[in-house]
Write a structure and sequence with these properties.
13 helices, TIM Barrel, 345 residues, two-stranded antiparallel sheet, globular, eight-stranded parallel beta barrel, alpha/beta
């Protein structure tokens, strides 16, 4: 079971490849978006619509380093919306051109992860043999759904809302294995389970560059989660989300092929990778998540070492019907701690 980690250009100027090198052989893949291209996160370079050549040069150099390390390259075309270009020849040509350019510098992607059926079809047509992967943003959570697009994809990210149910994950993996497919999960998502704002948010991110140029509504946060956690009464919802603790990741050995760690926007990607590689973390669980909600919970935090031993077992069969269950409420009382200011004698 290998990790797929998300590339970012570090604020301190240090190479992301140095982190990857330090945690080989745990890391099997690095996923990245092309400069100026919409994806599941804000655009890398070219936020103003103008090419950022310095950003692209850095990216290309880092990709070459990853290739030397023997790590697979996963190119993202996983924006939730491509607007009027969604089935256009122009977008097809762009995808083919980007992949071709990467090949010319010795960095032909091993994998293309996408939300777009058209892009999956394009990769299949022009680059036979290249792995196509269904993005977690497609929310594929049933064998039936995966079966509908089995001709387009070689691997699938499981709908994260269902991934704590280990028995169900096992069934999905069995189907994938029998059909020559791979099953992947996202371990450290901070998103709410079955979030009603996910499609709205994903569309907003896909158009982040254009949205940033608008005169937008002030004093309103468009994200369900950040608004929810303004009220401490809702803190328990973070326990009902989709993340998997580093300590519980061993349960997925043999039923998952790749574990994605969200690090493209994380302020401390090394910390995240180190925790999951070690299968242990002593600190604020919120600091591992993307998005992380440490500022919303402050001065409170979630003590990752305080979880009960039966946490994973108890939450695995959870259906989300909390009416007759108070388990997460009890656990919250155990793990929610407050930072204590230094005493002044």
């Amino acid at each position: 079971m290998k990790f797929a980690v998300g590339y970012q250009q570090m604020e301190d100027g240090s190479p992301f490849s140095s982190i990857v090198k330090d945690y080989l052989p745990s890391i099997g893949e690095v996923y990245f978006a092309w400069s100026g291209s919409p994806s599941g996160r804000p655009v890398l370079g070219g936020q103003t619509g103008k090419p950022d050549w310095s950003s692209q040069n850095i990216l290309e150099g880092e990709l070459q380093e990853f290739r030397k390390l023997g790590v697979k390259l996963d190119l993202l075309f996983n924006a939730n919306c491509y607007g009027e270009r969604a089935v256009s020849c122009g977008l097809e040509n762009e995808v083919v051109s980007i992949i071709g350019h990467l090949g010319s510098i010795g960095c032909l992607p091993d994998i293309v992860t996408t939300t777009s059926l058209m892009i999956a079809r394009t990769v299949r047509k022009h680059f036979p043999g290249m792995e196509t992967r269904a993005s977690v943003n497609m929310r594929l959570g049933t064998i039936q759904a995966m079966g509908y697009v089995t001709d387009l994809f070689d691997s699938f990210y499981l709908q994260r809302d269902l991934q704590r149910n280990l028995e169900y994950v096992g069934k999905m993996h069995k189907w994938c294995s029998e059909n020559g497919k791979k099953l992947c999960i996202l371990a450290n998502s901070g998103c709410l389970r079955f979030c009603p704002g996910q499609v709205f948010h994903d569309n907003l991110v896909a158009h982040s560059r254009e949205a940033g140029e608008m005169e937008n509504i002030k004093d309103w946060n468009p994200h369900v989660c950040w608004n929810l956690y303004k009220n401490p009464k809702n803190f328990v919802e973070v326990l009902k989300s989709t993340w998997i603790r580093p300590e519980d990741l061993h349960r997925y050995e043999g039923v998952v092929d790749t574990v994605k760690l969200a690090t493209r926007q994380h302020s401390h990607p090394r910390m995240v990778i180190a925790a999951y590689a070690a299968r242990s973390f002593r600190g604020n669980l919120l600091d591992l998540l993307e998005p992380g909600f440490s500022p919303a919970f402050f001065p409170n935090y979630i003590d990752n070492t305080a979880f009960p031993e039966d946490w994973a077992k108890q939450t695995s069969p959870c259906t989300g019907d909390c009416g007759g269950c108070s388990y997460c409420d009890r656990v919250l009382k155990q793990v929610l701690k407050s930072y204590q200011p230094d005493r002044i004698d």
